[in-house]
Predict the structure.
Amino acid sequence: MIGIIPSFKIASDAIRANKMRSILTMLGIIIGVGAVIIMLAVGSGARKMLEDQIASIGSNLLIVLPGASTSGGMSHGMGSQPTLTLLDAEAVEKQCPAVLYVAPVLSGVAQVVYGNQNWSTMVTGTTRGMFDLRDWSLASGRYFTGQDVRGATKVCLLGKTVVENLFGSIDPVGQVIRIQKVPFTVIGVLDEKGQSPSGQDQDDAIYVPVTTAQKKLFGTAFPGMIKVILVSAKGADYLEPAEKQITELLKQRHHIGPKQENDFTVKNLTQILGAAEKAAQIMSLLLGAIASVSLIVGGIGIMNIMLVSVTERTREIGIRMAVGARAWDIRLQFLIEALTLSLLGGIMGILMGVGVAKTISTLSGWPTLISPLSVLLAFSFSGVTGIFFGFYPAYKASLLNPISALRYE
Amino acid sequence: MALIEVKGLNKVYKSGDVEVHALRDVSLTIDLGAFIAVMGPSGSGKSTFMNMIGCLDQPTSGSYLLDGVDVGGLDGNELAEIRNKKLGFIFQGFNLLPRTKLVENVGLPMLYAGVGAQKRRQMALKALEAVGLSDKAGSYPNQLSGGQQQRAAIARALVNNAPIILADEPTGNLDTKTSYEIMKLFVRLNKDLNVTVILVTHEPDIAAFARRIIKFSDGRVTDDEEVKKT
């Protein structure tokens, strides 16, 4: 009875004796396992990206945009109609039961000055609801209140990046900065939020009360006008009711008849993200199909080369049988040789897959995630392939008649 | 009790519709420590006889007792174990594993006996010493002369202390001088270790080293006599 370890030694000797052939044989497994690793890395990276995206924007989110959803038809001249107003936002918050938080948005890029430091950043006028909706906590200070919004006070909340660029190590709370020459008192600093999925630094932002933004920063011809209303529903099940309620309410408020086109659009962000996730899933599936085809082809390659090897080494098998190798010993030897080939290929494939996944994420900015589980999965796939496709050649070798095997030239 | 006891051994091969009688009613006994030369023309059945004795083939009918065990009733694994424990094979073409060091080649039977690496190496070195190849333990077969390779093969046959060595034309690929050296080695091992040696040969001068010569013809034993040593 021969042990597993001597069998591995015999296998590695045989593989080393035919290096080129062994590497070419492993290529199919290498590519297959590499594809599995890349597929799982990109797939889980994409899923994580989408999850982060949903989490950072806020869950169960609806976006109300001005303008019709359909292109063509009647076009409203830009600014001729203030399609969304702060009052709309307030009405949505008060009158739509399926709605949890509402945040009006009026934003623009502005120059910000503190002392001799200046910084250009996105300034967003909004209400307290913005931070509830996005689950955005404070690092220090306080949020602005309803009173701040009603009174259009000149207070602001800073993102981490702005603080770093304007203040350095100084505590900004209580300091006065100038946004487009208007002095604002810093009342709070927001927690770090990190990059948005599109690569934007979400901490490079300043938030002010929406009324202040309207009156002091981004004044328009139509008072009360805002760019967007962000709405979060009470839960995933409330998204559709919320969408319906908002549409009905705004139609009524904007006096839009049943045959008229809406002058606003309600978008369901979760649905959009869901579609993106579905696309990512399809891509994973596609890569998975390629991976399994490649593994099968690789396995057939191993089977082929093992059959060649068994034929080439018929005499060796005969010698081994003559000195006392049992059928099982021979079977084990060739099975382990196939297994060694496929596992070596598997290891190389894992290394290649990790390398390619890393390269993809560096070059394209796509996030990739290599989990130990996916490495384990790929490794066991290659092992299973080796055993499955190595079994027949090993079985064939063990059936050889020692007399004719010894005579084989 | 005889080491090998063969009674009414028949072997019939079917080659298409034609039946070939390779062995016909062969009966003989061989004692422990015998030195036997098996001779006969090609197709006389001597190789088939050796395969039977070597447990590589099963007879069509008849019985074969090896050390009191009826080999006819054993399965493949049990036959492999008998080959491993009781028999050592020497071939005309040496049949060492290529790309494998001599010490590992010699230790091969022990590998299949489940002996650990260290013990295996120790026993292989001892066997190599017995055939005078101690200094070649780390060499590969293709680095050795034919005579040296055959001596390594003899060491492999000796390593598991098998009582029987079966040699199929062991000097067929060697020149006369080397052949005689190999034969002297067999004689010495036979005398010193009391190993039973059964060898097949065509050449009378090689057969002359044996103490008993069995001649085959048409699958039958036609002659079986002790050699008078002068």
Chain B has seven helices and ten strands. Chain B touches chain A through 28 residues (CB under 8 Å). Chain B has one domain: 4-226. The CA atoms of residues 10 and 24 of chain B lie 5 Å apart.
